[in-house]
Amino acid sequence: MINPQSQQVWAAPRRQLLRWTISYAPWNSPKTVVTEKTIAASQREALQSAMKLGVPLSAKRDWQFGWQKIDKDYRQQFLLALSFNVQSGMSAGKALEEVIQSERGHVRQVMEPALAIIKAGGEFSDAIDGLAMFDDATLSILRAGEKLGAMKEAMASAIAHIKKTNHSMKLMIGALMVIIADIVVSSITVFGVQFYQLPQLRTEGITSKDPVVVANFASNLDMAFLLNGILTAFTVVLSIVVTVVVMSYSNKEMREFRQKVDYALHQMPILRDLLRHTAISSTMSICGALLSGGVMLNKALVIVRGSTMSPIVSGYWQRAESHLEHGESVNIALQDENVLERSECLILASHADQMQLAQAMLAISERRDEMAERASSKFGKFAFWTGLLYSGCGVLIALWVSYIQYQAVMASTTSIGG
């Protein structure tokens, strides 16, 4: 018998809450096995909850909430509903509870972990984290808003961040789809040549008895194997890289690895400008909106610094916060020509009050939006020409193989005729 009173209670919320089926023997009927559902982050926590009811026998994971699909537009509307409730005077936790209880269907199932945390007396930030609906930047904004007592402003900033993120993703995905579609179609030809046509040619060989013709055929075949092999290896490596990047962004447990991926992406010449302009535009817009809403700069910086996954831009806001904490002026704290352009530093330095500083940041945000559009256009052109080059290489190799086949046929015909 396990005494439930002697067991440690695991109350700390975890990221990625799961639904479990637990089986236990009740204390008053140890020979009876009862099966129930519970919500926990790990098997250990699921067993811990069973200890309160009886002797735990097993805990089997049913399914993971994070895999439930939630539309991006819905996430924005969800935050907007929360914002309306908070503006009406509700606490953030109560507002979240009201919104969740109004949901039905699979969306309600996704939100069950958050509702369980709220009803157990947990904090809003832990509950919103349990939804597994928002990225780390959005969660950081909401956590900071709760900590600073500025939930109205934080929710407005989170909504603005999601809008910016969705717009940026559309720009990048639109450009990427061009190259991905082209590469997928071309890769079918590449793999077909590598694993079917070339091996078949090598197996069938050539019937000519002329050593020069045979040597020329073998040389051409080896060259085709080499060139198409390089293209095949490139395709495999590219597929692995894309898969790893997608997994790092979709799996919150890979946060440290995602940071490395973010750093690597920000070092790529083609993507670097697009990512930097987008991050600066988003954070400047959020900070400007917070300042316009009356939030003090030091509090706004706490919220803004976590609103981007860009290591360069996040570092800029962290340094600005550090400068202010050490007593330096706002003008000095916001100056960094390694991140901002000289003209942008001049605009920030020329403000006379908080409202002018907010206007300056919003102006920088609009300018960076335009620069992001141009960078996206460049990236789209790069994607187009890269896909065209890949397709061209695949077509040339296919033609080369066709030429080798033609050689074999002509040599065989000549041999028969001779």
Automatic annotation (TrEMBL):
It is a multi-pass membrane protein. Keywords: Cell membrane, Membrane, Plasmid, Transmembrane, Transmembrane helix. InterPro entries: GspF/PilC, T2SS_GspF_dom, T2SS_GspF_sf. It comes from the Bacteria. The keyword Flavoprotein does not apply. GO terms for cellular component: plasma membrane. Residues 78-190, 288-399 form the Type II secretion system protein GspF domain. It is found in: Cell membrane. The chain crosses the membrane at residues 171-196, 225-249, 382-403. Belongs to the GSP F family. This is Type II secretion system protein. The lineage of its organism: Bacteria, Pseudomonadati, Pseudomonadota, Betaproteobacteria, Burkholderiales.
